[in-house]
Amino acid sequence: MPSLGRLHLITDTRPGRDPLAVLRAALPVARAELVVQVRVEDDATDREAYELARRVVGLCRPYGATCLVNDRLHVALAVEAAGGHVGAEDLPVAAARRVLGADAVLGATAREPGGAAAAVAAGASYLGVGPCHATTTKAGLPDPIGPAGVRAVAGAVDVPVIAIGGVTAASVPALRAAGAHGVAVVGALSASPDPARTTAELIEALTC
Ligand SMILES: Cc1ncc(COP(=O)(O)OP(=O)(O)O)c(N)n1
Ligand SMILES: Cc1nc(C(=O)O)sc1CCOP(=O)(O)O
Ligand SMILES: [Mg+2]
């Protein structure tokens, strides 16, 4: 399996956002370092998720970027995405692995070392770890775990750790120093006035 990209762009499908425009700006900059996670609102239909994921797969292909689908693994299979991401309210990791198959990329959300080790034992190939910092993108999350929380998880597993939650280019060095392989962002790119430039700043922070 090729190594996992370090910059995970999670689609922002809230009203007024344009996830495909952000993706078109980020792809030529991040290329194969980009992992695009197609994440739609809970009330989106499967058809809407499928159409977005299908377009994302097509945009990613020429750049060697990876497309994953959040939660809806049947959509991941339908569009031939590289894999998916599951959390506490989704299919259990072992079941998700059975659905996607042995070779797929499978991410799982983990917030502490015990849950992280269990997710890896069940078949996760990377972990989304957070929230690292305060975020306004998703409600109902526990308190931020900071770089120290990322360090605790990264020390407990041997799969890539992707730090998520309020991440900006400025916060990347501390997260990398804590053992994160990469970061996942929504707002940093979706709300950027210049997503290509912000992508370059994130990539520089992730790869220097
Ligand atoms: C990289 C990454 N990490 C964590 C999450 C959160 O997943 P989950 O807990 O299932 O919450 P939703 O995103 O489904 O609301 C993620 N999507 N990606
Ligand atoms: C979807 C999601 N999951 C999180 C978790 O900690 O599980 S934080 C988050 C939102 C991340 O958005 P932003 O980069 O705008 O803070
Ligand atoms: Mg989920």
TrEMBL record:
Coiled coil: none annotated. It catalyses: 4-methyl-5-(2-phosphooxyethyl)-thiazole + 4-amino-2-methyl-5-(diphosphooxymethyl)pyrimidine + H(+) = thiamine phosphate + diphosphate; 2-(2-carboxy-4-methylthiazol-5-yl)ethyl phosphate + 4-amino-2-methyl-5-(diphosphooxymethyl)pyrimidine + 2 H(+) = thiamine phosphate + CO2 + diphosphate; 2-[(2R,5Z)-2-carboxy-4-methylthiazol-5(2H)-ylidene]ethyl phosphate + 4-amino-2-methyl-5-(diphosphooxymethyl)pyrimidine + 2 H(+) = thiamine phosphate + CO2 + diphosphate. Mg(2+) binds at residues 71, 90. Binds 1 Mg(2+) ion per subunit. Its EC number is 2.5.1.3. Keywords: Magnesium, Metal-binding, Thiamine biosynthesis, Transferase. It is an enzyme of class 2 (transferase). Pathway: Cofactor biosynthesis; thiamine diphosphate biosynthesis; thiamine phosphate from 4-amino-2-methyl-5-diphosphomethylpyrimidine and 4-methyl-5-(2-phosphoethyl)-thiazole: step 1/1. Pfam families: TMP-TENI. Gene3D superfamilies: Aldolase class I (3.20.20.70). Residues 7-189 form the Thiamine phosphate synthase/TenI domain. 4-amino-2-methyl-5-(diphosphooxymethyl)pyrimidine binds at residues 37-41, 70, 109, 138. Transmembrane segments: none annotated. GO terms for molecular function: thiamine-phosphate diphosphorylase activity. 2-[(2R,5Z)-2-carboxy-4-methylthiazol-5(2H)-ylidene]ethyl phosphate binds at residues 135-137, 166. Its cofactor is Mg(2+). InterPro entries: Aldolase_TIM (IPR013785), ThiamineP_synth_sf (IPR036206), ThiamineP_synth_TenI (IPR022998), TMP_synthase (IPR034291). Belongs to the thiamine-phosphate synthase family. Condenses 4-methyl-5-(beta-hydroxyethyl)thiazole monophosphate (THZ-P) and 2-methyl-4-amino-5-hydroxymethyl pyrimidine pyrophosphate (HMP-PP) to form thiamine monophosphate (TMP). This is Thiamine-phosphate synthase. It comes from Micromonospora fulviviridis.
